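Dear Dr. L.,

I hope this message finds you well. Following up on our conversation about the binding site, I have prepared a predicted three-dimensional model of the protein together with glutamic acid. For your records, I am including the exact sequence and ligand specification that went into the calculation, followed by the structure tokens. Please feel free to forward this to your student if that is useful.
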Amino acid sequence: MKKALISATAILAVFVFCTCLAPSSASAKTIFATIGTGGITGVYYPTGGAIAKMVNDKRDKYGIRCTVEATAGSVYNVNSVVSGDLEFGLVQADRQYQAINGLEEWKDKPQKDLRAVFSIHPEAVTLVASEASGVKDIRELKGKRVNIGNPGSGQRQNSIDALSAVGIDFEKDIKAEQVKAAEAPGLLQDGRIDALFYTVGHPSGAFKEATAGATKVRFVSVSGPEIEKLIKDKPYYSKTSIPVKLYPTAVNDADVETFGVKATFVTSAKVPEDIVYAITKEVFENFDEFKKLHPAYESLTKEGMLEGMSAEIHPGAMKYYKEAGLIK
Ligand code: GLU
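The resulting structure of the complex is given below.
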């Protein structure tokens, strides 16, 4: 009996010893990390998938299993990352800036634990209107039914900024709807709204849907001296245009001017360095493969992916940037 106990203990000891020494392999504990994205017809959702793919392809090396969650958008993602409900999130650069500096939804509540990892594709503040509404310019939205974006989204504040820049009070001068970006194109097609705003990379499923139905739809310019001033006043906004050839069934025949931001990838100071390092490294070391995963990444460069961040760079990402010589 005693003998059996001793050999059982010995076997157990050998087993424990081996598992402890084993390198991170499939037998080691899997670390789960979730990326908060946006609606499924946006670009954040496939972007989360693209990032997850890069690191999941090396599951044997890192033991990380990355999953993607559809969410309400940027503001929701910042809050969930900071609270620890999500490990990572996709967030508009303007929202990252506001969160870290305690502005807008975070008024007087700077989100000190928010950390930047990298930035990704450009996003355009995009306004479309049904041809029947007659709206050809943002100033003509007065009195119209307009989706400005759901609470928790990045675009809601962009719509408000654009409207107030041209003297439109979203609470008084328009009938403002606040539905999710995935639902708004259907409402436009059904004639239940006249126009919708969505800050997103192009091409996106949302605008394919908005422009592809029986209702004729036009991309509307968001430009002029007031918008120039808005861009000058806010460090995170820049001029951009929407390549309408991406949406051949839209009414437009020339590209449409607007302003935009960059999409960024964020995490929390509490997320361990090795996880952030692994994700950063796999995205950057497989940059050419990553770039092919979505047409909105066409203009991506490694250097550009280090611009547009206002939160401190997470030490795990910084470790990789220094190793790769991207940051001195
Ligand atoms: N920019 C949007 C937001 O922050 C999401 C866009 C997308 O899902 O691609 O809510």
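In brief: The mean pLDDT is 93.

With kind regards,
A. P.
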